[in-house]
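As a warm-up, study this chain.
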Amino acid sequence: MIPKNTICLWYDGAALEAAQFYAKTFPDSEVKAVHHAPNDYPDGKQGDVLTVEFTVYGIPCIGLNGGPVFKHSEAFSFQIATDDQAETDRLWNAIVGNGGQESECGWCKDKWGLSWQITPRVLTQAFTDPDRAAAKRAFDAMMTMRKIDVAAIEKAWRG
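Now compare it with the structure written out below.
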C-alpha cells in the first residue's frame, strides 16, 4: 500500500536504475514495486517502467519516469546524517563514484541530478554549540570543504 505521504522524484527514464542504486547504497532502503505503463504516454510506450516504489533510509519515495521536461535541483536534497568519517566516505564515494559530482560543504549530486547532503553528526553538533565562537570555527572550516573532513571539523570546533 502506498503511504499517505510519499516523495515523488522525477526521472528521465532512469527511475528503476536510481532506485536500485539507492537500495544497495543506503541502509533501510529497498525497491518495493515496479509499475509498467498501461498505455503509451508522451515519454514512453506501453509496458515501459512508469513508476517505481522505493525507500531511502526508510523514507517512502516514488520514482516517476516523466521524461526530460523537469530536472532535479538543489531546492530538494536528501540530508544523510553520518556517524563517522568511514560512513561519510562510503556514502560520498558511492554517489560521486557512480557518475555523480562533488559540490560544496558536504553536498553532492548523483548521476541523475538528485542532491545529497552527506552530513557528519559532529558537524551538526558543532553548529549548535552554545559557544558561538566554537560554532563559527567549525562553520568556517566547513566552508572550505567539499566532502566533510570529520577530524578537521573536530579540530576547528575545539580551537
